[in-house]
Amino acid sequence: MSNGDVLTFDIQKNPSPATASEREALLQNPGFGRIFTDHMVTIRYSQDRGWHGSKIEPRKALALDPATVVLHYAQEIFEGMKAYHLPDGGAALFRPGANARRFHNSAERLAMPTLPEDLFVESVRELVRIDREWIPTAEGASLYLRPFMIGSEAALGTRPATDYLYCVIASPVASYFKSGASAVSLWVSEHFTRAAPGGTGAAKCGGNYAASLSALAEGQREGCEQVVFLDAVERRWVEELGGMNVFFVFDDGSLQTPPLTGTILPGITRDSLITLARDMGLVVREEPYSIDQWQADAKSGRLREAFACGTAAVVTPIGKVKGSKYGFTIGDGNAGPVTGRLKAALTDIQFGRAADKHEWLDRLF
Ligand SMILES: *Cc1c(COP(=O)(O)O)cnc(C)c1O
Prior knowledge:
Number of domains: 2
CATH superfamily of the largest domain: D-amino Acid Aminotransferase, subunit A, domain 2
Bound molecules: pyridoxal-5'-phosphate
Oligomer: single chain
Strand content: 25-35%
Mean pLDDT: 96
């Protein structure tokens, strides 16, 4: 089937959007993922028609049959990306083609139909354009975009659904962690793992998050904000946080991040930071790093900084690490200079304050 018609969106404007003053009030203190814009994208898939019915419509609740596949077998994938307000009043997405590609890969892993990548990017652009008034202009704030796809057929047989719903919603966000740029504490998950070889660790699917929540709850009971997962085979190699990749910074100025072996989510922030660090002349290794080595290096001072990264929280310094067999502080427990430089280099590009030499921005208006 050609994308000719599916790329043309039927636009149904919200008849009662938030008023300017309601919107202003909400944008004062958006938090993360609590407030939403006036519209959403929906596109349907069925076996006989393929992708069809591209729409921008008023944001509203979805009506689902109680037997809908996603509710029972978690056939769901998603993406996370942002639209940034630029100094000249315009707006841009950051590497949306990379999100489209990853969404394609996630769909394949979950036995879902793949959405054409140009349709994915165009759907996000359309939503940001119609809800452009919702892009916050406060320092560090942005419009978070959440494309997702669910198996929407009503059937309890265990097989891939025949029908799917693709949807994009948008949420103005301030910075992800309440504490802003201050360092987070991590709990080492020694009993629960996030992803095993052959599993879905490299796919962005809701099921991975469901499987990580007990570990997060355990970590929070131990007074930590986030969890760091180890590999499922040897329980030794640092993989990533529940929703962020991880980097280590050494006393010789080099950086290291775990390699993409199939159990780690290939973060676009991770990939961008590798490029930016190399642009700065820093050595970056994609090599395994063990939790025991991390503790030893933090204690000896060979490890100077560590940080987590992802679209939502951007670059977040790691201050302390704790586990039943672990307990150490990184550097002085605060954000280090390399972490700060990399965060600034990335956000300066995203917010249009620095030259975009890798052509990562996709300007919307
Ligand atoms: C989304 C996600 C990341 C970060 O990916 P970005 O593309 O940088 O936002 C890292 N780990 C997991 C498990 C994720 O779901």
